[in-house]
Design brief:
Helices cover about 40% and strands about 15% of the residues. It is built from 5 helices and 6 strands. Helix 4 runs antiparallel to helix 5. The two termini are about 10 Å apart.
């Protein structure tokens, strides 16, 4: 078990994906995930899922990263807590939405918070001389995820 993060591409919204099997019932849920309206049968979900896995050259995702296992996430959490100050840098989104748990999946950061998250990440990267290589890798990946989220208008998902 570990922590992975993704940002969806915009091919479906932009009309660049393969035709959906039931285009008039295609919708997007709160996380931006393509879904079906109505009361889909198991067969309809299967057809939708098959379409989704093969809908565009990105297989639906423009970026995906393995962020770390439970131990690494725990270490990053301790590191960030120690870096916080009063007054001083605070990392509420990183601590409460990203690193709060080493195995969360199926949740996401609302798109309107991506710019604030990018600011938190850049604050940490500004002190890159105190970061170990694996910490640098994590925060650089978070930066790429934030930038992809802002560019696509899609949230960072876990
Ligand atoms: Zn795509």
């Amino acid at each position: 078990m570990a922590l992975d993060a993704f940002v969806r591409c915009t091919c479906i919204r932009d009309g660049k994906a393969k035709p959906h099997p039931f285009p008039d019932r295609l919708t997007f849920d709160g996380s931006g995930e393509p879904s079906l309206t109505g009361d889909p049968s198991e067969e309809e979900w299967d057809a939708h899922d098959q379409w989704l896995a093969d809908s565009c050259e990105h297989e639906g995702f423009i970026l995906s990263f393995f962020l770390g296992n439970i131990t690494k996430v725990g270490n990053l959490r301790s590191f960030l807590r120690a870096l916080q100050g009063k007054p001083g840098p605070r990392f509420p989104i990183l601590l409460e939405k990203v690193l709060y748990d080493g195995t969360h999946t199926g949740d996401w950061i609302p798109i309107k918070q991506s710019p604030a998250l990018l600011k938190e990440v850049n604050t940490v990267l500004h002190s890159s001389d105190i970061l170990a290589d694996s910490e640098k890798e994590f925060f650089n990946n978070m930066k790429l995820l934030c930038e992809a989220s802002i560019a696509t208008g899609n949230p960072i998902m876990f």
